Q: What sequence folds into this?
């Protein structure tokens, strides 16, 4: 019950910034895992791969740089040769995502550096996006796999023990990652500026 109260408070705190399309940085800590509800063919595929929770289409790791924030992710268009692990600004990562979920590691803060170091190493190596979604390839990686590796480096064991079976092999879906015993949700924000125009309010004075 306490977590739900905290979540509700953070939603209220973030509502004003969310309406303008900005993510309030006061909600973030280094090592936070940011899930976003992207649109687009590959994000839709990623979302649909999850059996139950299909809210999110992409994920990355937040890192503070002084007063600025960056996010390391395995992103870009998977059909492009430039799709790879990279560090980008928080705003660039968020793009036009209407839904943002912030998940925080449950392990002690002293283990965060091991997590972020793993992600930074992948960004420095500019590992290509793994279009085959295989956990066995060391020279390619996909978005949830990157976060899984970083979490596992921090805890010293498999951070996502329950994985989805897809075409006879294990993959890590966004839902699998969100259910990791080493992550807990702390906020979910709706960025109203980027919601689809499903409803147009009537003009003032109209019936």
A:
């Amino acid at each position: 019950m306490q977590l739900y109260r905290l979540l509700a408070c953070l939603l209220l705190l973030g509502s004003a910034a969310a309406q303008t399309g900005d993510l309030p940085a006061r909600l973030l800590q280094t090592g936070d895992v940011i899930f976003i509800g992207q649109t687009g063919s590959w994000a839709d595929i990623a979302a649909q791969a999850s059996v139950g929770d299909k809210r999110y289409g992409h994920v990355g790791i937040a890192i503070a740089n002084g007063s600025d924030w960056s996010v390391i992710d395995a992103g870009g268009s998977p059909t492009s040769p430039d799709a790879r692990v990279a560090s980008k600004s928080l705003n660039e990562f968020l793009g036009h995502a209407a839904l943002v979920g912030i998940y925080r590691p449950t392990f002690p803060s002293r283990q965060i550096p091991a997590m972020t170091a793993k992600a930074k190493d992948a960004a420095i190596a500019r590992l290509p996006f793994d279009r085959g979604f295989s956990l066995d390839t060391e020279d390619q990686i996909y978005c949830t796999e990157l976060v899984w590796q970083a979490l596992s480096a921090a805890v010293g064991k498999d951070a996502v023990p329950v994985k989805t079976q897809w075409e006879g092999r294990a993959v890590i879906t966004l839902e699998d990652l969100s259910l990791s015993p080493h992550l807990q949700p702390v906020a979910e924000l709706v960025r109203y500026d980027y919601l689809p125009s499903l409803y147009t309010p009537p003009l003032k004075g109209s019936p």
Notes: The domain at 24-184 is CATH 3.90.1720.10 (endopeptidase fold (from Nostoc punctiforme)). The chain has one domain: 24-184. The first strand starts at residue 33 and ends at 36.
